[in-house]
Amino acid sequence: MSPSVERSSSVSFSCLITHSFRRPLPGHAHERSIRVVELALPQSASFAGSSFSRRGGGAFSGGSAPLNMWHGASVQRNAVFSAFVGEVAASPNIFAGEVAVVVILSSLFERGERWARRQFASMGEETGGKILDALFKEVTCLGFIGLLLFLVTKSGAADALAESLLGPLSGKVEHPLAETFETVHIMIFLLLAVLLFQAAAVFVVSRQVEACWTQYERTRAFGELDACLESKCAEAGYLERVSDPTAPRGTQLLLKKAFVYGDSVQDRVQLRQLPLHKLIMWRAIRHEFLFPSSRAGTDTEEILQVPDPTLFSFEEYLRTRLGTTVLALVEVDIGSWFLALLLILPLTYICSSLPFDQVLSLQCSLAWLLAAAALALTLILEEDTYELTPGVPEDMRQTLRLFSGTSFQMLRRCRLPGYKHRSLAGRRFRPGLADAEEKGQNAKMSLPPRFAAGPLAEATGWPAPETYRRLLRLLAFFQAVCVTSLIVTYLSEPLESWLDIGLYCLAWAEWPLMLFQLVPVLLRRLTLRTSIEDQKDASVIRKISLKSKQSLIRDLRRLVQLTSFQRHARLNCKVWASYACLRPGSWSENQAEAARNLGLQRFNSLPEAEQLEIWALFAGWDADNDGVAHTQEIVEMFAMMGYPEGKEEAAESLIRLVDDVGDEALTWTKFKSLFGLALSEQSCSDEVKEGLGCIFAKCAQDGASRVSVFELSEGLLKVPIFLSPDDAANLLHSYFGQAMPSITKAQFVEWVIAGGSFEAKGAEHE
């Protein structure tokens, strides 16, 4: 039945519109009619119509055209929701199930986000959190856009706009604007999903890059282990080890061939594929960063100096800078969107007139064109970085002398608490260098090619660091657009011929090549290029320097926990810690193996950052670079903690606890097992507080209850821990959240147990 509209002199008209639609109900043979919607119309409007489809189909008469157009939109809107109400009334279980699914998926999504943020926080990865922030900012923006599009399309405004732009369409043909709005919106969401996956892949790749840098920084110059530079040079054929009983270590190193970076671009590209060349160039850049050479005669600006190279981690500095580079791949600025729009529009018009196989060919060509552009950018970046890389001597024996004692653990060795008479440069553990011993006295690295050629201002022709970042951001964004287009192609058109399948798979093959082969090189080179010379970041250098000094406080806490662990065991008459255990058979290898396995299990449960710092402590004690820490280090540690007598026996008892092979050697496996046991059982016990109290007493003069930062700095030298008064003041301020010119014993104990954390006191309760 058609609704009737009666005109009256009142302010408004009301009409009851009966919208009937047919839907078979489960278990019922009849059809249901739903009477809905009382629509208020202005006084000047007139309405005529008999029935309405879901998209609307009413006719309007009287009044102005725009007014009638928007009233038609209102009818469409009510028809849409009346259909929805009818569907809910017909099948309420389906509606409840859909709502439940949405709620469950939302909950899982939020849980996944929180889990990811907790993982990043536990790993100390600030970059991961920033990546999530950037992506969720884009997702939130698209969510609001989606809500706006929903209101526009369901209210009928989109159809009305389409009629005004395209004119009325005859028959039952629907206006395409509403559908295209939703389709484009979903495609953009799909693009963000691809960006999210790319961000996850880039994060994994960046972790691999960081691991590579960590290995580079901790590679020792001399030694018999395969991981040291001496062994790598011998394996690569640059040096030869010859047995000589009269030489130090019973070995002479002879030169076999010269080491060069390469005379041409082609030579350098080929040589840079060798792992040893990558390592040498990275260490040369690091050496110049920590110990800048004199550049007399050049007009370069004064290079920023690292305050204390012995406590500076170049790898951690690059890791922080790497976060900026990774974010450049994830964040999408408005310029990238507009540039993508300018490039995609003509391609869309071209593809609309091409056969399907030619469209696939175009997609495949564009995908590999992106890979070629990334490869070209990689080569440019590598050459640009080479221009800033200092030259090393062609005789690798002299290069080893230059790098001797400059690894992370050897530089830090002089600052570790414990033994005061350590070998710092490792000269006692070098092999014989034959004629290079005398020649190496004056050996040094040459200036980077860019500085050797003249002032930096004259070395033009290379892109600025910010240009590199923009190009890398565009490459990542267009790569995501390319992958999104491949997904849309698969959903839009079936692959019928073998040619279609081949082209489609070939286009997909470019993506993993880009992510896992080209992107790592781009990340390494761009991070290096934007972090050295005139691009040094003073704020990051200060932050890393202070964090490195903070690690000394954590080392002090761990050593106190280790000595307290032994003292607690001896006071409680543990078999392995008592002097009676010196008798044969009192502590068996099976018992030691069980203790070692328990310690390893507890060590593996420690945070990754904690494990790395314990390894750095072990590496500092392994002066010979033979994988065994010196027992004298533990003896001196007990002496530092107030063991005037019995310190040798105490050190031996700790080794005995985990010595499952009976060789009395403190290897890395036994070392981490010991710390796993000690740190888990002596986190903040009374013995630990008592040990820290002894250290505080070394700082306090005449038994004073408070010590100033100057007294604290001077007293820690007796441990020895080298902290200047400024360093001590900064660390105390970072933890307590206020200036601390002096501290009490209780505050000192609290600060050391907390590890001199950068988080202010009480931050964990917020």
Automatic annotation (TrEMBL):
Residues 609-644 form the EF-hand domain. PROSITE patterns: EF_HAND_2. The chain crosses the membrane at residues 90-110, 131-152, 184-205, 326-348, 360-381, 471-489, 501-523. Keywords: Membrane, Transmembrane, Transmembrane helix. It comes from the Eukaryota. The keyword RNA-binding does not apply. The keyword Membrane applies. GO terms for molecular function: calcium ion binding. This is EF-hand domain-containing protein.
